[in-house]
Amino acid sequence: MSTSTTTAPLLDVRDLTVTFQRKGGRATSAVDGVSFTIAPGEVVGVVGESGSGKSVTSLAVMGLLPTRATRVGGQVLFEGRDLLTLPTAERARMRGRELAMVFQDPMSSLNPVLTVGLQVTEVLRRHNDISAADARTEAVDLLRRVGIPDPARRVGEYPHQLSGGMRQRALIAIALACKPRLLICDEPTTALDVTIQAQVLELLRELVAEMGTAMMMITHDLGVVAGLCDRVNVMYAGRVVEAAGRQELFAAPRHRYTEGLLASIPRLDSPRGDRLTPIPGTPRDTIGWDRACAFAPRCRHVTDACIHPDLELAEMDPDHHVRCVHPAGRPEPATEEHR
Ligand SMILES: Nc1ncnc2c1ncn2[C@@H]1O[C@H](COP(=O)(O)OP(=O)(O)OP(=O)(O)O)[C@@H](O)[C@H]1O
Questions:
Q1: Residues 117-154: pLDDT tens digits?
Q2: Which of 188, 11, 200 is closest to 94 using CA atoms?
Q3: For ligand 1, what atom is nearest to the CA of residue 58?
Q4: What ipTM does the predicted assembly reach?
Q5: Residue located nearest, by CA, to atom 25 of ligand 1
Q6: Domains and CATH numbers, the chain
Q7: Which of 2, 56, 184, 208 could serve as a FRET partner for 230 with CA atoms 20 to 30 Å apart?
């Protein structure tokens, strides 16, 4: 089932499944019936622990999963067209122009033997009919817009000559060069120092708002979600377990996993001396969804009813969906911190 937005969605992911065929014939399911939408200009977070399927979901949307031994099912509708059925060449043409992606590690995403300027102009010239000189002028302007100082000099530099923060800014310049309709960011600040993280997130927020670009923000950091996202999808073991507006999610989490995630991070409004409550166990303590709620082994509220093969993502409120047999009630209203 799909979580809804009021305007026609830009991206409408329906019942996405990704299965990897392992050596010896065993298939593992990484994404298991994921559905969500992103409206034009909307910033949607995908949050969850390591291994929950966030990156595989984004790579499936971008068409960047390895084709060998990978089975992708469902639909990825971009402005109504199913990307999964488009010819490979057409998908490649859309990457950079309609959809772009920023990865976690800028050093492995940038080409080390090409100047930063050349990597920006390459994208501009691939998708636009412009001269080399105009592309260079535009590249300098883009580097300036992403906050790279002295951009006219920096265009001639190689990635290793830039700091980590500057490299990530260069990568953002490349991703936004053709003003894509959708930008997918996969943990874009994890590899950066904490002070630089905030600057890069603020830059992303400003740029997508200015360009009207929608953003899918993949993160395990609820602080990033609180500061940036309009709506949030919480993933666990390859499925969306809760989908809600940001305010609603922080004020009244309904899934016991989301509740646990929120209880395990420090909050400014917690009383002094209040202890954080970690979620017991690890994501490895999982039951297959076909037999039960995958979170059941780690859940403090588990009962026999959680052994239930058809646990649907159910509507709690308009635009708030939860996959849980014992969802939490509605606690106190949102604090200023999360508005
Ligand atoms: N190419 C692949 N072949 C086989 N299994 C894979 C492949 N890529 C990912 N997986 C598996 O798919 C599952 C989901 O991985 P994914 O990278 O999407 O998780 P994630 O939520 O993004 O975690 P992280 O935050 O650590 O990146 C994991 O169990 C992972 O081992």
A1: 999 999 999 888 899 999 999 999 999 989 999 999 99
A2: 11
A3: 18
A4: 0.94
A5: 50
A6: 11-105+182-322 (3.40.50.300)
A7: 56
